[in-house]
Write a structure and sequence with these properties.
By secondary structure, the protein is mainly beta. 4% of the residues lie in helices and 54% in strands.
């Protein structure tokens, strides 16, 4: 429901409200079991009941077993509402107050049948009841005035406050007697009931001052300062202050470009600014207490102990960025777009730092390190055809990004020369997490697979504990052993380049065809299927087809069956580059002259397909999700009477 009312010339009020109810009782098939399923077997017994082990192999379950014997109930309800009032004041001032509120409820019930292996007799059930509530209020004062017809000032002051709370109750039970026929409805009938609750709350507030100035609508200047507070940070640093300055120059409005007919718009932008990140757990900065059971003299008591350390100095993560951009429109805006260059630096990253075991705590939330980030973005939009009956437009986007760890924890270690003498110091890396100063946060540092040991190389392979058919790693220093000294920088797990091409074609004002083509390039990940190690169970379970080395059919890409992949462990990295047809849509809108006689105002048929195809050398799964991604067809009819 949407409502906007003008009470007087100086007062407007409005209301937006929405209620959504959604639910699904569907239980997904086990795609992992489906991939491992042998083509020889029966999904159902002779009497039509589900077969637990279709291939009589205890390692592979029936992919349809869960959805055939389990029971599920999942419902969500959400109510959103926004109430606002706008007051127009003298001298160019306006005041607007907006109050937003949201209520949410969720019921998530599940029953595991004892027909499934590993489930206790009678089955087990779980009921999760969850509700949350949040509100925010925004008060905005604006002032806009123009002086001498060329100086325009636009001032904005905002004060905002927010609060969020949730309540969750969870009940578990198993071993239902006499059986599990009541599913989760009779959760009290089990023999090992457990209950738990988790209630959370967070609050925040903020102040913003912003001034926009323009001279002749040609020279633009913006400055802002905001102060944000968040309850999850330490008591000493709950607030963060972030500033921004930006300038713009509409070059196309200058006299020296007025006569250049093929330039319709040309704008240069330059900005410097800070943003804050508060993405941490609601109680990450606090010392939390955990309840445990303590048995003394045969009596069970409840004990409480601190399970995490507090950090009173935990503060906002801050990113400082510099941006240079150009917006343009050419040839009567038939070609338009923008170019962006940026360089960011993030300080005081919100991270969990490992604690010494002697402390009794595993980690503590901390502000650590510095991460540099730089990249470029390009957007090009074109109107390729624009006639009375045909309009065709395309948009191409490209982006590239590179990050580098500048600092971590500040722990210094000695730098030694070849004789073991100390010649300096450097900041220590975090080898456990794979973070190395001077490299990207997701850069791969590992041994390099260079093929397979072959016949005739038995003596050389034996030095490394291998034999023909085993994976071969690069011995960088040729010392006859593979250790950390032989690791190399192999690539990155995040795409270096991203591209998107979208097209929209309209014919005769009734036929529309569009598509979105997406690609990501310059990244790698682990594909260990060519290792052919012993845990593949080739004779009983299925997998992606993989060749293998044999003495009579040797190769350098696939190891022998049951290959030795240890001492040290072998990982094979392959490129995850891909091009995907993300979406294709075709629709037909009936001419009004044809449908108006049937008292129909609008009628449109459409067909849409998501994930139409993927082009990639990544063999094992969807290269983006590393899982099975469905192709989704949607047929639609839109009618307005």
């Amino acid at each position: 429901m949407n409502l906007d009312t003008e009470i007087t010339k100086w007062l407007n009020i409005g209301l937006n409200a929405q209620f959504v109810h959604k639910g699904s009782d569907d239980i997904k098939a086990d795609t992992g079991a489906a991939k491992a399923a042998s083509p020889f077997g029966d999904v159902y017994e002779a009497d039509g009941s589900i077969k637990v082990r279709p291939w009589d192999d205890n390692r592979v379950a029936n992919p349809l077993l869960n959805r055939s014997v389990d029971d599920k109930y999942y419902r969500t309800q959400t109510f959103n509402s926004s109430v606002y009032g706008k007051l127009t004041l003298p001298f160019g001032f306006t005041w607007q107050t907006t109050f937003n509120v949201r209520y949410g409820w969720r019921k998530d019930y599940y029953f595991d049948s004892d027909i499934k292996p590993g489930v206790v007799a009678g089955g087990k059930a779980k009921r999760v009841d969850y509700s949350d509530y949040e509100w925010s209020i925004d008060n905005m004062l604006k002032w806009n005035r123009t002086f001498a017809k060329i100086h325009n000032f636009d001032f904005t002051f905002v004060y905002t406050a927010e609060k969020y709370q949730n309540w969750q109750s969870t009940g578990n039970n198993e071993g239902f007697q006499p059986n599990g026929a009541l599913s989760y409805h009779g959760i009290q009938a089990g023999i090992t009931p457990t209950v738990s609750a988790n209630d959370e709350m967070q609050t925040g507030n903020g102040l913003l001052w912003r001034l926009n100035y323009s001279l002749m609508d040609r020279y633009l200047l913006t400055g802002s300062v905001r102060r944000d507070g968040f309850s999850a940070f330490g008591q000493n640093n709950p607030f963060g202050v972030f500033s921004t300055v930006a300038a713009g120059w509409r070059m196309s409005e200058e006299k020296f470009l007025k006569d250049v007919k093929w330039i319709n718009n040309l704008k240069l932008r330059l900005s410097w600014g800070q943003t804050g990140n508060r993405d941490i757990g609601r109680y990450a900065a606090f010392s939390r207490l955990t309840i445990t059971n303590v048995i003394q003299n045969g009596v069970n008591y409840k004990g409480v102990y601190p399970s995490s350390l507090a950090n009173r100095d935990l503060k906002w993560e801050t990113t400082t960025g510099f941006n240079l951009g150009v917006d343009f429109g050419l040839f009567n805006n038939r070609l338009s777009g923008s170019v962006e260059l940026y360089k960011n630096k993030t300080n005081d990253l919100l991270m969990d730092r490992a604690m010494p075991e002697i402390s009794g705590y595993g980690k503590i939330a901390s502000n650590l390190g510095e991460l540099a980030n730089q990249g470029a973005e390009l957007t090009l939009s074109s109107v390729n055809v624009n006639t009375r009956n045909v309009r065709w437009g395309t948009t191409f986007t490209y982006s590239t990004n590179k990050n580098e760890i500048k600092h971590l924890y500040g722990d210094m270690i000695d730098v030694l020369d070849a004789e073991g003498n100390v010649i300096g110091q450097r900041e220590d890396d975090d080898v456990q997490n794979g973070w190395y100063i001077g490299h990207a946060i997701d850069e791969i540092y590992d041994y390099k697979w260079i093929g397979v040991w072959q016949l005739g190389e038995e003596l050389e392979a034996a030095k490394y504990g291998k034999q023909p058919g085993d994976p071969r790693l690069l011995d960088v220093n040729n010392d006859g052993k593979i250790n950390d000294d032989d690791k190399l920088w192999l690539g990155t797990k995040t795409p270096k380049h991203r591209m998107t091409l979208s097209s929209d074609l309209n014919l005769f004002k009734c036929i529309n065809f569009s598509f979105v083509l997406r690609g990501e390039f310059g990244w790698m990940d682990i594909d260990n299927l060519p290792r052919n190690e012993t845990n593949r169970f080739y004779n009983t379970s299925n997998s992606v087809w993989t060749e293998y080395w044999t003495p009579w059919n040797p190769n350098s890409k696939y190891a022998r069956l049951g290959a030795n992949i240890d001492s040290p462990g072998v990982n094979i990295y392959e490129k995850r580059n891909y091009v995907r047809m993300q979406n294709m849509a075709l629709s037909y809108t009936f001419p009004k002259k044809l449908i108006n006689k049937f008292m129909i105002d609008n009628l449109r048929f459409s067909i849409n397909v998501d994930n139409a195809f993927v082009i990639s050398k990544w063999r094992t799964s969807d290269p983006l999700t590393k899982a099975i991604t469905p192709r989704i067809w949607t047929f639609g009819v839109d009618i307005t009477l």
